[in-house]
Structure formats: C-alpha cells, structure tokens
Amino acid sequence: MVRVSDVRIGNFLLFDFPARGKVQYRSERINNEYDGFRAIATINGLQPEKIYGIPLTDSWLQKLGFEKIERHFQHNWVIRLSKTEAHYSIQFFNDKFWLSNSEYDAWCYVIREVVYVHDLQNLFYALTGEDLEIKEFISQA
Fold first, then answer.
1. Is 91 a member of any domain?
2. In the chain, where does DSSP find H-type helix?
3. Shared-domain flag, residues 104 and 67
4. Low-confidence residues of the chain, pLDDT below 70?
5. CA dist 36 → 17, 33, 39 (Å)
6. Would you tell me how many other CB atoms lie within 10 Å of the CB of residue 99?
7. CB 3.0 to 4.6 Å from 14: which of 52, 69, 113, 134, for a disulfide?
8. Residue 8 has what pLDDT?
9. Are residues 18 and 74 in the same domain?
C-alpha cells in the first residue's frame, strides 16, 4: 500500500484493479472523493490499499535512462541530466539501492535509500526539477 501523499502524477505504480488484477500503470489522477461520511483520497479511482510500489530493479533503472557501470565492490547506474550535465548515480550495495550525487566523478553524498520506482521518480524530480522519462511503457498484468 502507498500513501497518497507520496504519489505524484506520472508515477509508476502497481494497481490492483477489481476486474483486471494487478497491473503496472502510471498515476493519472489523484482525487479526494466524498463518500457521504468522509473524504477518501484515491489514485486513478482506487483507494491506497489497492496500490503498491513497484520494487526498483536493474530493468527499471535501464528503462528510466540510467547506464550501468561497474565499480569495485558494487555496481552503479549513472544518469546525466540533459540541461545541466550534472551526474546522479544509483549504487547497489548490501541488497539496497542508494541515490548519490556523482559530481566531479567522485561517488559521494549518499542522499537516500530508494526502494520503489515512484520513490526514485519523486526524489529525482525534487533534486533536479526534471522528470525521469522512459521510452516505452507497457502495463503488465
């Protein structure tokens, strides 16, 4: 289950649709609906208990534009911002992903552990002002 406050329009999430089952899909609308007694926040018309984060994997990093490089005891995924040429790195170590700023080709400044695709999308946007784009997204049941 995700918290509605952690979701932005365009985040990739796993939706448990009543008729279709679990589907990877992009968040398109976030609403507060009134059920006669209280306001209920929904994402794409579903309540948060039917929406889950997509675990961040190598294949998702590749879809989001990161390039894999090997470094000593860990592997890193690097992305260069188009506007500023700044570098950001995702490091995989101890079964966890960490977002770092790779300024001056020195891997430093661990910013935050990243677990889900939408966490990476939101953190990347907060740091850079740019959205992570993918070339092709096909929802999966």
1. yes
2. 58-63, 117-128
3. yes
4. 71-75, 80, 82-89, 91-96, 98-112, 135-141
5. 23, 9, 8
6. 20
7. 52
8. 94
9. no
